[in-house]
Design goal:
By secondary structure, the chain is mainly alpha-helical. It has a domain of 72 residues. The chain is built from six helices and three strands. Strands 1-2-3 form a three-stranded parallel beta sheet, with helices on one face. Strand 2, helix 3 and strand 3 form a beta-alpha-beta unit. The relative contact order is 0.06.
Length: 220
């Protein structure tokens, strides 16, 4: 919102007629900036105002007295150092500028008090941006609080681990079955040995038959 538009227009009208004040010979040497410096040389032509040289800064180039010190928004620019200075501020025509040397804590107090009194602050700085950026953090905390049941579910799943251990135990209990089978197989081997023994026991019969067959018959 812009106020005192008439004063701002009058100030602009006079400022358009005002020449650009430049440093002497800044157009000649690159090492010299164009910002204004007062010429002080003994034989300085610019100081003597020889024709053809740029104009000097003089009182006659001033703007209207009523428009001096106005911010481009039309408010009076007033420097503030603490919250007590806000008591002399008129929110309708004045805007505050917090001094450079004010610390972070006092700056927050001034901003909070200014918002209550509805006073325009010309240099709120990064504090306002930081406060706006800190709002999502609270939302993140809310989300984390809402996610707590998930953690409880994980705890329940961890509590269900003994079931897996029981399954492992059952699997471990199934191993003796294999061992039993091995034992049974190992117990089956004697059967083969028994069969071998039986077969070996049958061999004498064959030998007996052969002996009876191979007996010499006495000749009469």
């Amino acid at each position: 919102m812009v106020i005192n538009k008439e004063l701002l227009q009058l100030r602009k009208k006079i400022a358009d007629k005002r020449p650009d004040f430049v440093r002497q010979e800044s157009w000649r040497y690159k090492k010299l900036a164009t910002n204004w410096r007062k010429p002080k040389g003994k034989d300085n032509k610019m100081r003597k105002q020889v024709s053809g040289v740029p104009a000097l800064v003089k009182v006659g180039y001033k703007g209207p007295r009523k428009s001096r010190g106005l911010h481009p928004s039309g408010y009076n620019d007033i420097l503030i150092f603490n919250t007590n200075d806000l008591t002399r501020i008129d929110p309708k025509i004045d805007a505050i500028r917090i001094a450079h040397g004010v610390g972070y804590k006092k700056r927050l107090d001034i901003l909070n008090e200014a918002t209550k009194l509805k006073i325009k602050v010309l240099n709120p700085g990064k504090i306002e941006k930081v406060e706006k950026a800190e709002k999502p953090k609270k939302e993140v905390e809310k989300v984390e609080k809402a996610e707590k049941p998930k953690k409880e579910v994980e705890k329940v799943e961890k509590a269900e681990k003994p079931k897996k251990e029981v399954e492992k135990v059952e699997k471990a209990g199934a191993k003796p079955k294999k061992e039993v089978e091995k034992v049974e197989k190992a117990g089956a081997k004697p059967k083969k040995e028994v069969e071998k023994v039986e077969k070996a026991g049958a061999k004498p019969k064959k030998e007996g038959k052969g002996k009876s067959i191979g007996k010499k018959v006495s000749k009469s």
